[in-house]
Amino acid sequence: MGSLPAHFDPIKHEEQSKLNESTLLNLFKSQQSYLNYFFQHLDLSQTLKFTQILLNSKGTIIFTGVGKSGFVAQKISQTLVSLGIRSGFLSPVDALHGDIGILTRNDVVVMFSKSGNSEELIRLAPCAKAKGAYLVGITSNLGNNLMGFCDLNVHLPLERELCPFDLAPVTSTAIQMVFGDTVAIALMSARNLSKEAYAANHPAGKIGKSLIFKVKDVMKKQEDLPVCKEGDLIMDQLVGLTSGGCGCLLVIDDDYHLIGTFTDGDLRRTLKASGEGIFKLTVGEMCNRHPRIIGPDAMAVEAMQKMESPPSPVQFLPVINDKDILIGIVTLHGLVSAGSTRAALFLLLSNSIM
């Protein structure tokens, strides 16, 4: 990158460009007004019919569009795919050179176009119709040429573009995206898509990990736990407390039932209150006998929520099976390593407060 000229004055340059907070605020307010116009004038009966057609589709939902509308069409198609709905994007240009062969009579073709007069779509529409596909036009200009080819037309009300020349497609693409994504979520609700099914379509991302992983998948197993007995002296358990990687001791009886927990925070408070008397105290005398616990089949995000819950956050949860036996421990670090978004956020917040 080149350096700024020596005489460059950012303040004077800002005045000349007339770019300031007031200008930006007015633009955002104008865009908000144009979006509100869309919401206030959208025909919900058309939208409902469109959504029902997609819901009842026996084939693939094919989206198409030209230019910026094409980008929106691709995005909406990808959203549906992520919800487990058969969908795809078909370039109108490539369709006319062989790709239209993918269409069947069971498919729905959704055409996004602001004007409804794009030459590429006008040429594609009768060809798609001849393949037996059901055609839906999503446009903003009434009385357009595409409407005559479509089985259903949905009008997206557009007051004007934010562009000062009313040309650059910025407001029109915004309402296309809002419309398409909202319909996608309506389909998600109508199909009763579960968190588990949604996560199965996102196995590599943090969304999937936080929803797919259960506590038993991320916990430290019984053989790796920092355990002790309630009669053990605190000072004899310092190595276990500091080297276990959990920041705590799990106090158990002979049958591995959990009696309580003893943390490094408990150690500091005991030392402050007892002084030299700590050498004679047992873990059982100072441990927390009512710790938060969780089961092995709980979801990782549920463990995170339990860690965050009042009265104060904790860094770990003992894992107890249905026979009340201690079988593991799940830690904040373990959840972060597993990819829980909420856990990562919580860790950042905790570090900023400390």
Automatic annotation (TrEMBL):
<feature type="domain" description="CBS">
    <location>
        <begin position="219"/>
        <end position="281"/>
    </location>
</feature>
<keyword id="KW-0677">Repeat</keyword>
<dbReference type="InterPro" id="IPR046342">
    <property type="entry name" value="CBS_dom_sf"/>
</dbReference>
<keyword id="KW-0129">CBS domain</keyword>
<dbReference type="InterPro" id="IPR001347">
    <property type="entry name" value="SIS_dom"/>
</dbReference>
<feature type="domain" description="CBS">
    <location>
        <begin position="287"/>
        <end position="345"/>
    </location>
</feature>
<feature type="site" description="Catalytically relevant">
    <location>
        <position position="161"/>
    </location>
</feature>
<dbReference type="Pfam" id="PF01380">
    <property type="entry name" value="SIS"/>
</dbReference>
<comment type="similarity">
    <text>Belongs to the SIS family. GutQ/KpsF subfamily.</text>
</comment>
<dbReference type="InterPro" id="IPR035474">
    <property type="entry name" value="SIS_Kpsf"/>
</dbReference>
<feature type="site" description="Catalytically relevant">
    <location>
        <position position="202"/>
    </location>
</feature>
<dbReference type="InterPro" id="IPR046348">
    <property type="entry name" value="SIS_dom_sf"/>
</dbReference>
<feature type="site" description="Catalytically relevant">
    <location>
        <position position="120"/>
    </location>
</feature>
<dbReference type="GO" id="GO:0005975">
    <property type="term" value="P:carbohydrate metabolic process"/>
</dbReference>
<protein>
    <recommendedName>
        <fullName>Arabinose 5-phosphate isomerase</fullName>
    </recommendedName>
</protein>
<dbReference type="GO" id="GO:0097367">
    <property type="term" value="F:carbohydrate derivative binding"/>
</dbReference>
<dbReference type="Pfam" id="PF00571">
    <property type="entry name" value="CBS"/>
</dbReference>
<feature type="site" description="Catalytically relevant">
    <location>
        <position position="68"/>
    </location>
</feature>
<dbReference type="GO" id="GO:1901135">
    <property type="term" value="P:carbohydrate derivative metabolic process"/>
</dbReference>
<dbReference type="InterPro" id="IPR004800">
    <property type="entry name" value="KdsD/KpsF-type"/>
</dbReference>
<dbReference type="GO" id="GO:0016853">
    <property type="term" value="F:isomerase activity"/>
</dbReference>
<dbReference type="InterPro" id="IPR000644">
    <property type="entry name" value="CBS_dom"/>
</dbReference>
<feature type="domain" description="SIS">
    <location>
        <begin position="50"/>
        <end position="193"/>
    </location>
</feature>
